[in-house]
């Protein structure tokens, strides 16, 4: 099991935060996600994330201005 703890985005409204977590939880590789202060903890399902799942994670991180560096090891 892999758990990513990444610096989260600044949300513009409660709806914005809800949309972020809703989209994140729709990605098949994500088993669970929660906010911890300014960080987001993302628990990934066992096994390697597919290329499509990684693209979805990168797209979400990019849309919310988050650093994608922590996703790089998942592609190996």
Number of helical stretches of at least 4 residues: 2
Overall pLDDT level? 92
- When the domains are counted, the total is 1
User: What is the CATH class designation?
Assistant: Alpha Beta
Order of adjacent strands in the largest pleated sheet: 1-3-2
- What can be said about the biggest beta sheet? 3 strands, antiparallel
Q: Please give the number of β-strands.
A: 3
The CA-CA distance between the termini, in Å, is 15 Å
Describe what is shown at a glance.
With 76 residues, the protein is an alpha+beta fold.
How would you describe what is shown here?
The structure is a single chain. This protein is of the alpha+beta class and 76 residues long. The protein has one domain: Alpha-Beta Plaits (2-Layer Sandwich). Helix content is 34%, strand content 25%. It contains 2 helices and 3 strands, in the order E-H-E-E-H. It has helices spanning 14-26, 51-63; strands at residues 2-7, 30-36, 39-44. A 3-stranded antiparallel beta sheet has the order 1-3-2, covered by helices on one side. Strand 2 and strand 3 form a beta hairpin. The longest helix has 13 residues, at 14-26. The radius of gyration is 12 Å and the shape is globular. The relative contact order is 0.23.
């Amino acid at each position: 099991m892999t758990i990513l703890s990444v610096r989260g985005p600044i949300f513009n409204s409660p709806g914005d935060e809800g949309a972020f977590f809703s989209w994140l939880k729709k990605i098949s590789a994500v088993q669970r996600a929660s906010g911890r202060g300014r960080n987001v903890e993302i628990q990934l399902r066992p096994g390697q994330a597919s290329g499509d799942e990684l693209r979805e994670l990168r797209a979400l991180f990019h849309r919310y201005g988050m650093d994608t560096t922590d996703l790089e090891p998942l592609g190996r």
